[in-house]
Design a protein that fits this description.
six-stranded antiparallel β-sheet; 788 residues; five-stranded antiparallel β-sheet; Arc Repressor Mutant, subunit A; 4 domains; Neuraminidase; 60 strands; single chain
Length: 788
């Protein structure tokens, strides 16, 4: 019997008096000689047991862990936990109070040959486990860190039955064969039932017939042991072969960069020997990006640009002579081309480059055109093609009906163009368009945020990254629509494949986002800032309750994006939803202070849900269309306003019913103040804020309010509108007073709140407290792997 998850083989040898089990591993850590197998006996029964029994459940404080189903419960309520994190928990529970080394945990969590960077993978698994247990490394209640050695489970453990050897024991122990006298039945006095050696309490002197029988059994055992040695070798070979069915021998991940800060946007040179990427680690760049080139096998960097920018997304030309890149700068935004060895930049596109989904550009194989995502006439992103000779642009036609089109990628032979087509917020499809005249074909639909799309060298499939709310994962889809997840790429994004050399690269990163609070009544609000809501994961979209006593927010601290509640001081976090997977976001309070509306993809598309915080039962609002997100309530809570993601803002009854378009202008975000709705209006140059009665009537832009960029966040109270200005240096928070139609600067921020373009900030009902989100830690490296 082979257990690929443990890297362990159990071989049963049946004799008239017992069943012998041989437990095998390929990596003993206790110095034992794997060429010297030992036989472990277990009693025989009518039905042979091929593995020793294990406890069904283990209890510790308010938690229960079901080792059979890999489920974790707290006070009877199921808590979502990934497979790797649960494996760590089960190993630690198997050895409470004892040090379990990092090596033992890695061996127990990942099968031999699994393509993963074990140190980072283990750190991520332990972090997710601590999040699920509401534990901390600084003041642990359950999991204690022993620096550079491993971990120890320190809480009291209660088992339903006596445990089997912990998985880490099996994975780190040499093959052991122990002999024991025959025991009738499944259990005897002093005999273990977990597969350990069986020991009678009162050994008796053998009779002559028993002695003959003992010698026969000894000969049989010797023969069995000799057979076992052969079987061991075969089993080890089988394990080695089966542990990585899709991976070639010697396959491994390699760090291409390990620079401080972030390395993003890798793109291969045509011969596959170099990678261009953006890096924000230069001291003088203030954590902004420039473009670099680095050869495989070399640590030397060639810096191509010297204009630090918020974001850079490059693409290497097919002939290797130049690199095109999108630049998102404070005063410079567009697409440029620069010689691959350095030199002057040439501007290709100066306006309308979209900033919504992950930014990506692609060269046509003949090097004459670039594809990119840009804002259309209504402000909604679509795919454009620009000629490098004439600099003329044209929209992709034919094109799928998208709410947001992005991440174009020409196939290696130039006969197809792939792209991401969003159908609603955090729901998208991958399309392929035959170039240049169509038709258009969908390949696969995903829930989450797309983080990069690339063709394989032979043009038979596409590799892409999908972030469902807890970090990116790498997938591939064939042209027939067959979808599979790659066996590596945790926290991965921006995949790129070399056209020669069978290599791929991707970004492996981690980001922590916290919610901060500033006192707007302070003389210097910047000096009043405190970190209010935080974890090792991300906290976003905070919203004060009408009485200011609670804060609702979105977080993935439990392993999936859910809606959470805290008090006004950020204490006592409480999870409100438990969808356990579908992306859930954008909480907003009803004026009664009891109900919250939010969007979720639990039904397979974006829809609005309402939940009473006392009942904790989410209810989907039935309306047409049903692909709505980012809701807000009317003052009397009878109506909801929400966008379909394509720039159409709707109004519909909160009890359910047909939705009606609220404005003809393209809009994605709204706030209700008393009897009026303030909403954004999109155009290729940015955002303006408009006002309209909630019940319908004339609409008009807010007088004297400056135009906002797509990156700016904004919120409103009865007194006025708070908004960020990301074009200023430093970034500022400003206040527009509705009564006087004047604007003043309130405070500065270290960077634009995340997410930008609308709901990145919140203000308490009394106008005293400002909440904003800020990146606490963000690191990324570029990884190399063989192409799938």
């Amino acid at each position: 019997m082979l257990d690929e998850k443990q890297g362990v083989a159990a071989i049963a040898i049946d004799s008239p008096s017992r069943v012998d089990y041989i437990y095998l591993t390929t990596h003993p850590v206790d110095g034992s000689d794997i060429s010297r197998p030992h036989l472990r006996h277990a009693p025989t029964s009518d039905t042979l047991r091929m593995s020793p029994p294990t406890p069904n459940r283990i209890r510790f404080e308010a938690f229960e862990a079901d080792l059979r189903t890999e489920e974790l419960f707290k006070s009877g309520r199921k808590i979502r936990l990934s497979h790797q994190s649960f494996r760590v928990l089960s190993i630690l529970l198997g050895r409470p109070g004892q040090l379990v080394t990092r090596e033992e945990l890695c061996a127990g969590v990942w099968p031999l040959g699994t393509l993963v960077e074990h140190d980072q993978g283990l750190n991520a698994a332990v972090n997710r486990l601590r999040d699920a247990l509401s534990d901390s490394a600084e003041a642990p209640q359950f999991i204690e860190t022993l620096p550079k050695r491993g971990y120890r489970f320190i809480a009291a453990v209660e088992r339903e039955s006596r445990p089997a050897p912990a998985p880490s024991d099996l994975a780190s122990t040499a093959v052991a064969i122990e002999t024991a006298p025959q025991v009738d039945g499944a259990e005897a006095d002093g005999a273990a039932v977990d597969g350990a050696a069986v020991r009678p309490s009162q050994p008796a002197e053998p009779t002559r017939s028993e002695g003959l029988r003992f010698r026969k059994e000894t000969l049989f055992a010797a023969a069995a042991a000799l057979t076992a040695i052969v079987v061991v070798a075969v089993a080890l070979a089988v394990i080695s072969h089966r542990s990585e069915p899709r991976l070639s021998a010697g396959r491994q991940l390699v760090l291409f960069t390990s620079l401080p800060g972030q390395e993003i946007g890798p793109t291969f040179s045509p011969d596959g020997s170099q990678i261009a990427f953006a890096w924000n680690g230069e001291a003088a760049a203030r954590h902004q990006f420039d473009l670099y080139v680095k050869s495989l096998g070399s640590e030397r960097l060639l810096r191509l640009t010297r204009q630090p920018s918020r974001w850079i997304a490059p693409a290497w030309s097919p002939d290797g002579s130049a690199i095109a890149f999108i630049r998102n700068g404070q005063d410079d935004w567009g697409i440029s081309v620069i010689p691959a060895l350095g030199g002057p930049e040439r501007r290709i596109v100066s306006t309308r480059v979209a900033v919504g989904l992950y930014m990506q550009i692609s060269w046509s194989p003949d090097g004459r055109e670039l594809a990119y995502s840009g804002y259309g006439p209504t402000g909604v992103p679509q795919i454009y093609i620009v000629s490098l000779d004439s600099l003329e642009t044209r929209a992709l036609s034919p094109a799928p009906q998208c709410l947001d089109a992005a991440q174009p990628a020409f196939s290696p032979n130039g006969k197809q163009l792939a792209l991401i087509c969003a159908s609603s917020s955090a729901v998208y499809a991958i399309y392929v368009v035959d170039w240049p005249a169509g038709p258009v074909r969908p390949l696969a639909t995903m829930m989450g945020d797309p983080q990069g799309l690339a063709w394989s060298a032979d043009g038979s499939r596409l590799v892409f990254s999908n972030d469902s709310g807890d970090g990116g994962e790498l997938w591939q889809v064939t042209l027939s629509g067959e979808l599979t997840q790659l066996p590596f790429g945790e926290s991965g994004s921006a995949p790129t494949l070399a056209m020669h050399g069978r290599r791929m690269a991707y970004v492996r990163g981690r980001r922590t986002i916290d919610i901060w609070r500033a006192d707007l009544t302070a003389m210097h609000p910047e000096q009043s800032v405190i970190k209010l809501i935080y974890s090792t994961r991300s906290q976003l979209l905070p919203r004060y309750s009408p009485d200011g006593a609670r804060i609702a927010f979105q977080s993935n601290r439990s392993g999936s994006t859910e809606i959470w509640l805290t008090d006004s001081q950020g204490a006592d976090p409480d999870r409100l939803t438990s969808f356990n997977g579908p992306f859930t976001s954008a909480p907003i309070w009803c004026s009664d202070g009891r109900r919250l509306a939010f969007d979720s993809r639990a039904s397979g598309s974006s829809a609005i849900y309402i939940e009473d915080i006392r009942e904790r039962v989410p209810r989907k609002v039935s309306t047409t269309p049903d692909n709505l997100s980012s809701p807000t309530w009317s003052q009397d809570c009878r109506w909801l306003f929400a966008s379909d993601g394509s720039g159409v803002l709707y109004r519909f009854p909160s009890a359910g019913g047909r939705a009606e378009r609220f404005t003809e202008h393209p809009s994605t975000h709204s706030v209700v103040i008393a009897d009026r709705v303030i909403f954004n209006v999109l155009d290729p140059q940015g955002i303006t804020l408009w006002s309209k009665p909630a019940g319908g009537g004339p609409e008009a832009p807010l007088e004297n309010l400056p135009r906002l960029s797509y990156s700016d966040a904004w919120s409103a109270t009865a007194a006025g509108v708070y908004y960020t200005d990301s074009t200023s240096g430093p970034i500022t928070v400003n206040f527009y007073e509705l009564a006087t139609r004047t604007t003043r600067t309130v405070m500065g921020l270290p960077q634009t709140p995340i997410p930008g373009g609308g709901p990145g900030i919140a203000v308490s009902p009394d106008g005293r407290w400002l909440l904003y989100t800020d990146v606490a830690d963000e690191q990324s490296d570029i990884m190399l792997a063989p192409a799938p």
